[in-house]
Amino acid sequence: MGGFDYFLNFNFNREMLDMDKIVKDVNGTETVEHEVNEIAAELESKAHDMDASVDMPLENRGNASEPIGVLMAKRIKRRSFMKGSAAAASVSAMVASPMMATKAAAAPADSLTFTPIEGSTEDTAVVPEGYEWYSILQFGQSLSPFVSDLSDADLVAGKHLTNKGAKDQAEQFGYNNDAVEFFALPTPDSNGKNNAVICVNHEYINDNLVYPDRGSYGSTADYFMAYPTADKWARNAIGMTVAEIERKHGKWQVVKSSGFNRRITMNTPFALTGPARKNEYLQTSANPAGTRVKGTYNNCAAGGTPWGTYLSAEENTDGVFSNFAGLEAALSGSTDPKDIKLLDMHRRLQPASGSSYLGFEAFDDRFDVAKEPHEPFRFGWVCEVDPYDPGAAPRKLTALGRFKHECATTIEAANKHCVVYMGDDARFEYVYKFVSERKINKNRRRNKNLLNKGTLYVAKFNEDGTGEWMAVDYDSQEVLQTAKVEGTDIPQFDNQAEVLINARRAGDLLGATPMDRPEDVEANPVTRKVYVACTNNTKRTSGDSIAERDGRDVQQFPDIANPRPANSWGHIIEISEDGDDNTATSFTWEIFLLAGDPQSSAGRFLTQDEDLNDVDLGSEEALDRDDTYYAGFAHGDLVSPIGAPDNISFDKQGNLWIVTDGSQPTGVHNGTFAVPTEGPNRGYLRQFMSGPNDSEVCGCEFTPDNRTLLLNIQHPGDRGVLGTPNSNFPNGGSSEPRPTLIGVRRKDNKPVGR
Biased-composition ranges for Basic and acidic residues (predicted)? Predict the structure, then answer.
């Protein structure tokens, strides 16, 4: 594969010596050093034709990258090794068997005591013995005592696609719920034992499950032309839900009479805040000032701030815009620098060439890019909502950058600054974090503008297990000041606002590491280590190939942080910020999990003890798509197979909880998994829950007492058709499938997982 060095992120619980000390202190060390240098030289000689870490030509990058074999050779030379006569063997094993993991001294005992389940293909939620699940809110359920629930009969008959149905949907739980966050009542710092407000994202719509006779029409826009009120309904089916819930007899339920209840939709006004506010690229005919936006779309994962606000991440917003081909045609002959720059800005997050997925362009010109070329720049942000203040307008936070945000999770740093971790959920995109300029104030109202000023960073994962957070900052980064639009003399950026609007391009120029769909990124509140869930990337190739992806050339060969070709099952990276300081600009990292089936005959289960000296370092197939690694845990017969890690969370003991979205290696449904990150069972991953047909499991949020796990079941039965479902979740019988927020609890009301 051209080098596995990216896995060599381990520490030994033995005395360590640098290479120069080995020469002085150990008998026969000249031989050790000679063997190490021989290995390094061999790698370096093979590496020149395998430049595996470059996503743009080297001369166009701020930080030039080197072939992976060269990086591996350098790392071997720099690495410290064990003292004693086994040093040479350790070097060889380190190269050939790089799956060694750190085990913490005096590590905590395993606090996960539930009986793991097997993966399931049942059309229901399956949970361990002694647990139960129940529906809290489901698509079409009313949030108001004055609005009825949407019945199956009315859904199949299309009665929701009327003016009344659209109006009702603005007070009903929306479609395809993704993130969920829990906010205790009466205040953020209360225990939330029996009352809380939840915020839930509604990401997108499955046409086949909500539009009668949808298959007779070529596009959603065509459908809307035939059924105009369907457009009105759709605008209210997405966005967010804010709702009060209360616990009765151990189960949570919605409080329909609550003044906290509200829907945030494509009709809701948002304020634009931060450095890009009023920038010319955010100005449109409807809002010439560039200060407000109507609506939000494709709200995926999310996070809660330390002062009790909700951060909702706009992800695949390109799907709501149409006719980019028309814009290209209109500007194809233009020599105006603004036109050339405009097209280039769009190409790094490009709208649909023809019809959009949602079809809103049928009646609203702002979703036709040829007519409103700036409108897409007003989407793709992190939105902030105050669940405690129903009258407060939600805001889009431009300081956090514009890209396909999968998440926006926070931690209060030791120095009281707020740190927001984010992933750009697309193949070969980047990991980001934002550090607030000001410290968090004890008075929550004084934090209203805290996320408007600060520094956005993008991650580079180095070959030696270190990493850099590079400031995505026009004033301090010369490469951003001097960059030109490719093939022109036109400045790529003129100010920080343009850097934030086109954050992906800035990441290219800074030399960020292209990742395998970085989805959720979250800091462990117990250890402060940061975990990056990379869902998958089947476009990673075993050969040395370059492809155009999202407006730039990408070298698709596996790299230091994304080590497998055809990465079908995904992986998780563990980051340790320098000094355990989440505001640090440097870090160390290691692979925590290579997902897959540990018992598959097609791959190897790699552990810290396994001897892989027979691996051919020069082979491009040295690491296979089906090879698995579970943080060094040695018992492949015990761990659960897992694929497509998506959202993540932590319980009070610091155990990592993972929900999945994608194919599973044994053909079962998506589910929920838990794994210790420290202690003797670090890496011992167990399945906790399995979802129904054709669904993904989202959310993964614990109540403060850990007695309820909140999970969103998104798009159950998504391969069916309205009226002839292939899932009846959650109501059973012959009912239509409904995206649903469920609660999972122990029947004895003790904390989940323990």
Answer: 745-754
